[in-house]
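Continuing the series of single-chain predictions for the mutant panel. This is the parent chain; the variants come on the following pages.
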Amino acid sequence: DAETRLRTNIDDAWPKLERLGLSPGASRDRLRFVEDIERAVADADFIQESAPDDEALKIELIGQIDAACRSDVVIASSSSKFLPSRVASGCNRPERVIVGHPFVPAYLVPLVEVVGSASTPAEILDWAVDFYRLVGKRPLKLKKEIEAYIANRLQHAIYLEALSLVEQGICDYADIDDAVTWGPGLRWAVQGPVLHRHLGGGKGGVRHMIDHFGWNGVPGGEVAFIDAVERRWGHVSIAELESWRDDNLLAILEGVTPPPRQ
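Parent structure:
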């Protein structure tokens, strides 16, 4: 049943969480399984809805949660793609419903995308960001709602290109995984595509990169792009960033083990 599966999953994850470091007093014995929504949310200070990714189901469930919990409680949905304004459409207080999208395996991957609708007060989003940060996550607050948010949209774009490459006979599916795993995937664990453009310019940084390779975005957008990169990284030398990148890549390479049964 659901409780058995949940407790088994937590038992399997617990040793990995111990390696990361548990909070003082953390114990599996504190987990309570309640089959009644009203009882489950009655004393909750924060609610993370994690039902299957079915929009109609989430709308109905979050509406029931909204009706049963305190009016000051933030309700976060683990939705991977739905707009918060949609999943909150069955609520009397939709402004306190947000998306708090974690990534599988959620007990290890730090990122949580925090998304509000146009009616969500800034203080609710800020509270959620602080909460996720307090429990060891790396929350990322979106400026406005969009389906599938940020990371899944990036992942999906890569997936579509992978399908296209295979369909054209350029490579097979195993090549796709190897290309990402042993190439940009390693680098992405340390630096995103924006910082990569900065380091790709060598001593001249992002300005030289764009001068040399050109700009593919909206005409004139390169000015804002360069400004954003230099505001974030301009106080650190390229040499320092390269050394930091290399140290982290070495740590990753030293820790990577072959997949089972290959």
